[in-house]
Design brief:
- The complex is a heterodimer of chains A (about 350) and B (about 220).
- Helices cover about 35% and strands about 30% of the residues of chain A.
- In chain A, helix 3 crosses helix 4, helix 4 packs across helix 5 and helix 5 packs parallel to helix 6.
- Chain A starts with a strand and ends with a strand.
- The model of chain A has no long low-confidence stretch (mean pLDDT about 90).
- Chain B has about 220 residues and is mainly alpha-helical.
- Helix content of chain B is about 85%, strand content about 0%.
- The longest helix of chain B is centred in the first third of the chain and has 39 residues.
- The mean pLDDT of chain B is about 90.
- The chains are: A alpha/beta (about 350), B mainly alpha (about 220).
- At the A-B interface, helix 2 and helix 3 of A face helix 6 and helix 7 of B.
Chain lengths: ~350, ~220
């Protein structure tokens, strides 16, 4: 549905050239949700703006629904853009228009008859669950509600493609979750192809079918979620995956933590479970080989694309030297282990 | 004498109000399109055009640099050409409108600059034409700010019109000048001042009220 071929974008500013994108190729098949992840400044925003030519690539080709957009005249491009909806980090709603008037805006641009607009707006309000906010102004809405209005507006002309530019980055976690659920729903119900950019692996993890990692204007990795999560090649990808799995050590453990072993104290470690590593089996082996029991204090484990990921905080209960042997054993088994101290 | 004085003051007040509002209207008819044009031809805007932008900008700066009292005199030939005379209310309207227009253009440009670029980008993405962006996005979004610009302009024009009075434009300015400055009639001078202050207050109050009404930001 969307195909970017060898996109390069160079910004010329006061004689200095900055390469925002270099030779980026990306394909998004019909009905899929594809996420592009990268840190800020990686070129994500430029990339997504190249899809509807809000930024014109310096070189390369942009295909949406079979049309090479770069070859279209400006009026043909305006038409082609109707097949592409877009939502933004800061919503970009018109403050002077009510919720319904905002949703009606793209239809007004097409000179759709008033009665048709009214019916369509009602449908869309229902779809995003804002029937009772039709006559409110955006300034009276919460961030999540504003993004719902923006989604309704983007869908008004039944586009085939929806572009999401950091659509949840300005929202709190609970609202992010509900907006992502709505996007997934729309994707399923209307089989709209979605391309989204984000800096949060959480977003990718929860709704994307495929992911591409962008670093310094280059696509360094792309593939299905399970492939990327189970075999992340680049360090950046590994970092991004790790950052999506966060764990906090409970405060009373932090207070009791000391670097020296002592009577009644146990070794506190974290174990990382990533893709293939068999941490569970290792725990029972440790119990058998070193007579050391493991007390799992807390853990965050996710199951994505057939693989488990996560981190566990474990108290090893055994003799001091056996505990250290256990740590060495984990390392031997290629399990990432970090010794925090004794509690 | 006092009856005729009151009549004179009423006539003067009406003339001042007329000059202020009619020249304000004409000034906006010129200044609003000019301000929009200045904005959309700016760098990175929807109709970027450096040459036209610079030309209009220079023209505006020239007119803004001319002191109003000199502009009135300087424009006399042009005024005669348009309204056939160089004295009276209708003659004053010409320099007042021309004097206000560049000022209004800059204020309109500034109001439009307050609009977040994201809104323009989103409209372009939705396939809006430049004309649609101006009519459906820029002007409605800037409306509260434009109303404030209108208020400021009208109050400035009250002052300008009295300045015009000194050179025969009529209105409260002329009364204040003739009876106050030349004749030193304290009562008339102070009545003129009170009337002018009242007029300014009414304009400011109404402007603030309307601006608040249309502001949904």
């Amino acid at each position: 549905m969307i195909e970017l071929k060898h996109i390069t974008k160079i910004f010329q500013e006061e004689g200095r050239a900055t390469t925002a994108l270099s030779d980026v190729s990306l394909k998004v098949s019909e009905g899929k949700i594809v996420g592009v992840i990268g840190e800020s400044g990686a070129g994500k925003s430029t990339l997504i703006r190249c899809v509807n030519l809000l930024e014109c690539p310096t070189s390369g080709e942009v295909y949406v629904d079979g049309d090479n957009l770069m070859l279209l005249s400006s009026s043909e491009l305006t038409k082609a853009r109707r097949n592409i909806g877009m939502i933004f980090q800061h919503f970009n709603l018109l403050a002077s228009r009510t919720v319904s008037e905002n949703i009606a805006f793209p239809l007004e641009l097409d000179k759709t008859p008033k009665t048709n607009i009214k019916a369509r707006v009602e449908e869309l309000l229902k779809l995003v669950g804002l029937e009772n906010k039709a006559n409110e102004y955006p300034s009276n809405l919460s961030g999540g509600q504003k993004q719902r209005v923006a989604i309704a507006r983007a869908l008004a002309r039944n586009p085939k493609v929806l572009l999401c530019d950091e659509a949840t980055s300005a929202l709190d976690p609970a609202t992010t979750h509900s907006i992502l659920a709505l996007l997934k729903d729309i994707n399923k119900q209307m089989s709209i192809t979605i391309l989204l950019i984000t800096h949060e692996m959480e977003v990718v993890k929860s709704i994307c079918d495929e992911v591409a990692v962008l670093n310094n204007g280059e696509l360094i990795e792309q593939g299905t979620i399970s492939a990327i999560f189970s075999h992340p090649k680049s360090e950046l990808t590994q970092q991004l995956i790790a950052s999506s799995i966060r764990m906090q050590i409970p405060l009373d453990y932090v207070e009791r933590l000391s670097p020296q072993p002592g009577p009644g104290k146990n070794l506190l470690i974290t174990l990382e479970i990533s893709g293939q590593s068999m941490a569970n089996a290792a725990l029972s082996e440790v119990a058998r080989l070193f007579q050391t029991n493991s007390n799992i204090v807390c853990a965050q484990i996710d199951y994505i694309g057939g693989v488990k990921f996560g981190i566990m905080l474990i108290e090893l209960i055994g003799e001091v030297d056996k505990e250290l042997q256990a740590v060495a054993f984990f390392k031997d088994k290629n399990i990432k282990v970090e010794v925090l101290g004794y509690v | 004498m006092y009856e005729s004085m009151i009549e004179l003051l009423i006539k003067g007040t009406i003339e001042t109000i007329l000059m202020t509002f009619v020249s304000g209207f004409l000034g906006f008819a010129l200044g609003l399109p000019a301000g929009v044009f200045l904005f959309i031809t700016r760098k990175g805007q929807i109709k970027e055009n450096r040459i036209l932008n610079n030309l209009l900008s220079i023209l505006i700066n020239i007119f803004r640099a001319i002191p109003f009292i000199i502009l009135i005199v300087w424009m006399i030939p042009f005024t005669r050409l348009i309204v056939g005379t160089s004295i009276g209310v209708s003659a004053a309207l010409v320099p007042l409108s021309i004097g206000a227009a560049p000022f209004i253009a800059r204020m309109v440009e500034n109001s439009l600059l307050e609009i977040p670029y994201g809104l323009i980008e989103a409209s372009l993405e939705m396939g809006a034409t430049p004309f649609q962006i101006v009519r459906k996005v820029l002007l409605p979004e800037a409306l509260p700010s434009l109303v404030n610009s209108i208020t400021i302009t009208l109050i400035t024009l009250v002052g300008y019109s009295t300045m015009g009075g000194a050179v025969g434009a009529g209105g409260l300015g002329q009364i204040g000048y003739q009876y106050g400055y030349v004749g030193y009639d304290l009562v008339v001078m102070n009545i003129v001042l009170v009337l002018l202050v009242a007029l300014v207050f009414i304009i400011q109050f109404t402007g603030d009220f309307v601006s608040k009404k249309v502001d949904h930001r």
